Amino acid sequence: MEILQLETFLAVATYGGFHRAADALRISQPAVSARISTLEDSLGTRLFEREHGKFSLSLAGKALRPHAEQLLRQVAIARQAVHEMHPIAGGALPIAASLSICTYLLPEVLKKYQQSHPKVVVSVRSGNSAQVLKMVLDGEVDLGLARSLNHPEVETIQLRDDPLILVGHPGHPSMARRKLRLEELESMPIISYDRGSSDWTLMNGLFRRDGLLPNIVLEVETIEACKRMVLRKLGLAFLPQIAVVDELRRGKLCPLEITNSEPLRRSLDVIIPRRRPLSISAKELVAGLREATETAVKIAPSRRKFHRG
Q1: How many CB atoms lie within 10 A of CB 205?
Q2: Are 41 and 30 in contact (CB under 8 A)?
Q3: pTM of this prediction?
Q4: pLDDT-based confidence at 128, cuts 50/70/90?
Q5: Which range of residues forms the domain containing residue 224?
């Protein structure tokens, strides 16, 4: 039983097939099949079953899965222990983050980090969640910051919730009510951003599940541009909580509650490659991120009166 075989086994179990696992691991499908076959031979049993076109874990596979996950965690800890015997005081620390995290979370975290780590040069690359994941997997960066990401080759550390919340300017006509039903929201003006992103997909999915369509009156490229449009009273928007904390606290924007739908939940995550130990500098940055996000964001309802017009 080898580490690569266990990693491949977990990939197949996670993605539900050899082809998808091969894509995720960036190896050929025959290589995936060979690793699984060798693992099954060593255990003397089949780990997967195919029945009526469906692919699933066998009873043996279900029994193996938690132990495989635990073994890989222990391997990562062992690598880390060896790596930490050779600490580096300075050097480069490349990281990747989604654009909203770069804009609204990292500046304060990095300011504090650089004060205590003046010899470490942090370089930040930005992209959407899929691009951040790819940079981590390709070894271009030491760690990534994104939303709700899981992959068999990375460890995911959840920092805190960052839901998408519906907000509007307190003076916009649609803000006469604090609570509304989704079907009432359908006719109200919505500003959207970054078509095709996970945020855009979540927002559209909220309406589609009830057979509704959002009334998109304006599309922009970035979260910040969308927020500025809302501040100009051009419409409502679903925005990440992290992007509007200050405006909500100061009463420049107000949240609306949709009474007949579940909140659009996401999490802010650190993703770390399982097979590459983190440097001391990277571990201390993760600790700084934990400290900065350990307190859940609480937004008290604004008591500011609505002004029409």
Answers
A1: 10
A2: no
A3: 0.65
A4: confident
A5: 164-258
